């Protein structure tokens, strides 16, 4: 069987993490006519002849924008297999109209995010960051203050997309109550999943820890306000591993100044990273991590495997499990 001509087109650092391992390249080489060389979108634009016969693009972070100009130079292109999460910067009307397949490994990327969130939720239920702050400030151990702990405490999850759902599934191993705010869920579905559906206001006022998993969409930007944060229980924790723009950041910081008992664990901010001198760096009850919840280093190889499995399905004439439709793309982060 004649193998389809393919190219790696993505950021070179991303290539090393996702596709640079010999095992993944060997699997692709058995399925496609592909060289072990990566091209960036800029290199392709400098020499459009590189893609004139390309039928399949293997990609990841730094993927090409499939606009009219690019597609005109790649008339044989049939599919792009994306070994990462968000495809927002790739898809265009021109791509959809030409019927080009695109898949995403967002489900694979959701696994480490859920692992990160569960680790932070459990630590927060022990008021871990509050203790760390006290010891660093006072150079002694405090008298123990009341902590929620991991038994019959309440965890709030905002939005049950792929990551929120995986976080929920992992939390089932623990003796915690789970409440959920999810605009796309009804009471019957919530009961079927064994969770209590509440309002956004109730998530913040009732939960000991709130974990945000809402994508950054026009209708969700700024949905988390200062009033939400201000209503949180004493020694509560807010975790954001979703997108910074979903939170009204200045309002959040105002609340955190007034409520030193609260902790905000922020793996994402708006902008990202915050500019030098931003007050977010100075607040002792803000824990900043540099977007580490998602796939890092060898975790990226899991995303490659999801993409390779989708490629195998497509080559066999099946619909890939993680193919993204135009409608689904509009709802992804």
Short description:
By secondary structure, this protein is of the alpha/beta class. Helices cover 37% and strands 16% of the residues.
Helix content: 25-40%
CATH superfamily of the largest domain: NAD(P)-binding Rossmann-like Domain
Provide a count of the helices: 14
- Report the uncertain regions: none
Number of DSSP strands?
A: 13
Number of domains: 2
Instruction: Look at the helices and sheets and give the structural class.
Output: alpha/beta
Architecture (CATH level 2) name of the largest domain: 3-Layer(aba) Sandwich
What fraction strand?
15-25%
User: On the 0-100 scale, what is the average pLDDT?
Assistant: 96
Given this structure, which CATH class of the largest domain is correct? Alpha Beta
Measure the end-to-end span. 38 Å
What order do the strands of the largest sheet run in, or round the barrel if closed? Answer: 9-8-7-10-11-12-13
Question: What this model shows, in words?
Answer:
It is built from 14 helices and 13 strands. The strands form 2 sheets. The protein has a 7-stranded parallel beta sheet, with helices on both faces. Strands 1, 2, 3, 4, 5 and 6 form a 6-stranded parallel beta sheet that branches. The chain has helices at 12-18, 22-31, 41-46, 68-73, 93-97, 106-125, 128-138, 162-171, 187-193, 200-206, 226-230, 249-258, 300-315, 326-329; strands at residues 4-9, 32-33, 38-39, 56-59, 79-82, 101-104, 151-158, 175-181, 196-197, 209-212, 237-240, 263-266, 286-288. β10 (209-212), α11 (226-230) and β11 (237-240) form a beta-alpha-beta unit. The radius of gyration is 22 Å and the shape is elongated. α2 (22-31) packs parallel to α13 (300-315), α6 packs across α8 (162-171) and α6 packs antiparallel against α13 (300-315). The chain is an alpha/beta fold and 333 residues long. The longest helix is centred in the middle third of the chain and has 20 residues, at 106-125. It folds into 2 domains: 4-104 and 297-329, 3-Layer(aba) Sandwich (Rossmann fold); 110-288, NAD(P)-binding Rossmann-like Domain (Rossmann fold).
């Amino acid at each position: 069987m004649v193998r389809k001509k393919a190219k790696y087109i993505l950021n070179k650092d991303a290539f090393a993490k996702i596709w640079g391992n010999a095992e993944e390249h060997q699997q692709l080489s058995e399925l496609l006519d592909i060289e072990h060389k990566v091209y960036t979108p800029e290199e392709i634009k400098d020499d459009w002849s590189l893609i004139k016969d390309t039928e399949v693009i293997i990609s990841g972070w730094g993927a090409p924008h499939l606009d009219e100009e690019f597609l005109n130079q790649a008339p044989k292109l049939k599919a792009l297999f994306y070994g990462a999460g968000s495809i927002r910067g790739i898809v265009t009307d021109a791509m959809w109209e030409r019927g080009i397949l695109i898949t995403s490994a967002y489900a694979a990327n959701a696994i480490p995010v859920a692992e990160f969130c569960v680790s932070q939720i459990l630590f927060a239920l022990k008021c871990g960051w509050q203790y760390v702050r006290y010891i660093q400030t006072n150079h002694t151990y405090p008298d123990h203050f009341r902590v929620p702990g991991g038994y019959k405490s309440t965890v709030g999850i905002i939005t049950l997309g792929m990551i929120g759902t995986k976080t929920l599934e992992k939390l089932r191993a623990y003796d915690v109550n789970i409440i959920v705010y999810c605009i796309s869920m009804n009471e019957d579905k919530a009961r079927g999943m064994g969770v209590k559906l509440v309002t956004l206001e109730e998530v913040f006022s009732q939960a000991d820890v709130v974990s945000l998993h809402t994508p950054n969409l026009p209708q969700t930007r700024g949905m988390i306000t200062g009033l939400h944060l201000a209503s949180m229980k004493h020694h509560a924790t807010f975790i954001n591993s979703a997108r910074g723009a979903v939170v009204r950041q200045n309002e959040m910081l105002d609340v955190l100044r007034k409520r030193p008992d609260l902790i905000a664990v922020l793996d994402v901010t708006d902008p990202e990273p915050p500019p030098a001198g931003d007050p977010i760096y100075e607040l002792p009850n803000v824990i900043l991590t540099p977007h580490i919840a998602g796939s890092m280093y060898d975790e990226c190889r899991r995303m490659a495997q999801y993409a390779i499995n989708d490629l195998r399905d497509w080559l066999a004439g099946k619909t890939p499990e993680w193919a993204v439709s135009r409608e689904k793309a509009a709802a992804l982060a």
